Amino acid sequence: MNKVTPFLMFNDQLEAAIEFYTATFPDSEVRTIARSGKDGPISSAEFVVGGQLFMGYNGGPYFTFSEGVSLYVDCADQDEVDEYWDKLVKAGAKPMRCGWIKDPFGLVWQVVPRRFTELIRDSDSRKVKAVMEAMMTMVKLDVAELERASNAA
User: What average pLDDT does range 39-47 have in this prediction?
Assistant: First the structure.
């Protein structure tokens, strides 16, 4: 186990969340599962999503997720952004703003192309400002539009 591992408290959807996450992201697996009774629902699990270890627990309605914590998806390009965005939407996720999307289990994901990170690291503050302003108008991030904003600055 890692020294620090995110621990996610679900209401009662841990099993469905694990199935979706491990099917959606490469380098994912279920490591351990504990059930309530022999054939009962999953109560806790240790699983890997995109190479990141997580622990999860069905803790009931006492705990909810918020935008204060989100999962960042590093995407190589627009095609990868589109791929993950589409998978999340098909699963019932709700698009938010600025590349954020809330999955059906309440977790927020940031689906971000690497090009965005490169553009906001530019030494020209006018370009960075233009890219950030463009990003703030978007739901799903659009690499071509971000580049246009940078080039126009």
Answer: 92
pLDDT of residue 23: 97
Q: What is the pTM (predicted TM-score) of this model?
A: 0.93
Helices (H), the chain: 14-24, 78-90, 114-119, 125-136, 143-152
Same domain, 55 and 130: no
- Cβ neighbours, 10 Å, residue 58: 19
Q: H helices within 75-142, ranges in order?
A: 78-90, 114-119, 125-136
How much is the CA Rg of the chain, to the nearest whole Å? Answer: 18
138 by DSSP, 3-state: which?
coil
* 144 or 36, which is more confident: 144
Mark whether 69 and 130 lie in a shared domain: yes
Give the strand pairing for 29-35 and 42-49: antiparallel
We report the CATH number of the domain holding residue 27 as 3.10.180.10
Residues 139 and 71 in one domain: yes
Average pLDDT over residues 110-119: 98
Structural domain total, the chain: 2
